[in-house]
């Protein structure tokens, strides 16, 4: 009998064969991978072409996931299913028709904003939160129709609450933590987390140091206790892991993530202009081989075995099954 599934709700690594092999060593059945930030549609297609070559080169390690059944297939064949996501709506440009096109190409998650105001909603770094725009409401309807998950990880509060209310399918915050635990701009208020849970949505907990209490010095015990307390707030069935692991990325990629093409200046967002690179990871999570540590830490909090298994992947699997197909 297969063990419970293990799924990571968000990674943006500098992909390579060693990382794919570490995924297998860590027992990862599926990963939601960021394939695009500020790229246009055509540039996003080029990234998909690159992934197609990886799928062709390493078929014994990875394959493209499109449905929840692919997670089961990955588990049965000892591989990792890769689900595509975008951290910004730049890939659809100003064309709602590209929502369905990108879903056909395999995109399964799209954030409505990445820190800034977009054509769809406001990001968490804007002084004013517009909520969903007219185009935002239309795009959410289209995403709901085709089975493309609305992700509000980098969005401002009103915009996130608007998305939860307007979406007719549960949304996700794939990589963030409670602001009550650590008050980063990207972390979410209890108001948002309660609304997310009540709507059937999913929260993925991030191990990215800017999102952690005490940053890189955050302890595994603190992280796991935070998850246990969030289970009290939201219910354990609404929780998963979304590490936001940026393994092997050069420090220069931070400028692309934060600044894109929208400014001539350097804007490192949650980072520091004095030290703009990636912060050191906490000593208990450096790569995909460390998921056992999180699972063991959660077990020590007193969560039930079934609850821990859900957080480590079972809840994401259920959410995938509800979310990736078109409306009947």
Give a quick rundown of the structure.
With 328 residues, the protein is an alpha/beta fold. Helices cover 39% and strands 12% of the residues.
What does this protein structure show overall?
The longest helix has 19 residues, at 305-323. Helix 3 links the parallel strand 3 (62-64) and strand 4. This protein has one domain (7-86, 173-323): Metal-dependent hydrolases (TIM Barrel, Alpha-Beta Barrel), CATH 3.20.20.140. It is 39% helix and 12% strand. The chain is an alpha/beta fold and 328 residues long. Helix 8 (220-234) packs across helix 10 (291-300) and helix 10 packs across helix 11 (305-323). The relative contact order is 0.15. It is built from 11 helices and 9 strands.
C-alpha Rg (nearest Å): 18 Å
Order of helices and strands: EHEHEHEHEHEHEHEHEHHH
Q: Structural class, from helix and strand content?
A: alpha/beta
State which percent range the strand residues make up: 5-15%
The CATH architecture would be Alpha-Beta Barrel
At the fold tier of CATH, the topology name is: TIM Barrel
Shape: globular
Number of strands: 9
Tally of discrete structural domains = 1
What is the residue-averaged pLDDT? 94
CATH top level assignment: Alpha Beta
């Amino acid at each position: 009998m297969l063990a419970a599934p293990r799924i990571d709700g968000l990674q943006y690594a500098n992909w390579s064969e060693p990382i794919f092999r570490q995924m297998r060593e860590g027992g990862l059945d599926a990963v939601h991978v960021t394939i695009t930030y500020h790229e246009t549609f055509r540039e996003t297609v080029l990234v998909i072409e690159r992934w197609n070559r990886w799928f062709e080169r390493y078929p014994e390690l990875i394959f493209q996931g499109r449905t929840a059944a692919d997670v089961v297939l990955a588990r049965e064949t000892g591989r990792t299913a890769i689900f595509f996501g975008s951290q910004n709506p730049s890939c659809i440009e100003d064309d709602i028709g590209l929502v369905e096109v990108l879903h056909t190409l395999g995109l399964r998650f799209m954030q409505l904003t990445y820190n800034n105001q977009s054509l769809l909603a406001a990001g968490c770094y804007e002084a004013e939160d517009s909520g969903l725009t007219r185009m935002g409401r239309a795009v959410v309807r289209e995403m709901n129709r085709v089975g493309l998950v609305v992700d509000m990880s980098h969005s401002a509060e009103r915009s996130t609450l608007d998305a939860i209310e307007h979406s007719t399918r549960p949304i996700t915050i794939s990589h963030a933590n409670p602001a009550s635990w650590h008050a980063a701009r990207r972390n979410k208020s209890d108001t948002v987390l309660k609304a997310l849970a009540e709507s059937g949505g999913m929260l993925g907990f991030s191990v990215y140091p800017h999102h952690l209490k005490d940053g890189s010095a955050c302890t595994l015990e603190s992280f796991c206790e935070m998850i246990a307390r969030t289970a009290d707030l939201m219910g354990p069935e609404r929780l998963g892991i979304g590490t936001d692991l940026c393994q092997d990325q050069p420090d220069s990629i931070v400028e692309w993530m934060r600044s894109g093409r929208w400014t001539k200046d350097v804007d490192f967002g949650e980072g520091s202009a004095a030290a703009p690179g990636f912060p050191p990871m906490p000593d208990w999570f450096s790569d995909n081989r460390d998921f056992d540590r999180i699972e063991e830490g959660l077990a020590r909090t007193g969560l039930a075995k079934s609850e821990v298994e859900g957080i480590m992947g079972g809840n994401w699997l259920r959410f995938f099954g509800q979310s990736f197909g078109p409306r009947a």
